[in-house]
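hey can u check if this looks right to u? its 168 residues, i copy pasted from the old doc so theres a chance i mangled smth
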Amino acid sequence: GYGLPNCTTYAWGRFWEISDLADGTKDYSNKPTLPTGDAGEWFPNVTGYETGTTPKLGAVICWLDNSGGAGHVAIVEQILDNGDIVVGQSGWGASNIFWTSTIYKSDGYSYEGKTFQGFIYNPHVTSGGGSSGGGGSEEPDPTPTPTKKKKKKYNFVLMNRRRRLGIG
C-alpha cells in the first residue's frame, strides 16, 4: 500500500517477480510472505525464509539505519567474482523510481552509513552464491567462451520509467 519510490515496496515486488520468473510460472502464484514493516525490521522479523550473510541471487539485502531511521532493503541482482554485489533498489523520496548500486564486500556490505544485517534468500532461485540457504551452483553464462570468467547474475531486466536497464 505504499507505492514507489519506496525500498520495501520495490524489494517485496521484485522478490515476487523473481520468484515467478525463476520457476517459470510467470503467473504470480509465488506471492511472498516477506515482512511489510520498516526495512530495518525485515531481517530480524522474517519467518519462512532462510537467512544468512552470504549473497545469493534474488535475495533481499537488509540494512539497519544507525541514526534511528527506517533502514533499507534491496535485491541482489548480480554477484561479482570478488564478492561485491549489484543491487536493484528504490528509495523513499528518491528522484528515480529504480536504480542499481554496487555494494562492496570489503566494506562489510554497508551502505550509506547503514549497518548490514544479512540476506533473506529467495527459495525459488536455485543458482548463485554458495551451497546453503536458497542457493546452489553458479548460473551458467548465456554466452560462455573459454577465456571468459563466469559471473553470477540474472538475465532479467528492471524497468526504469520507460526504458529498460539490462542487469548483468
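The beta strands are 51-52, 60-65, 72-79, 85-89, 99-103, 114-120, 152-153, 157-160, 163-166.
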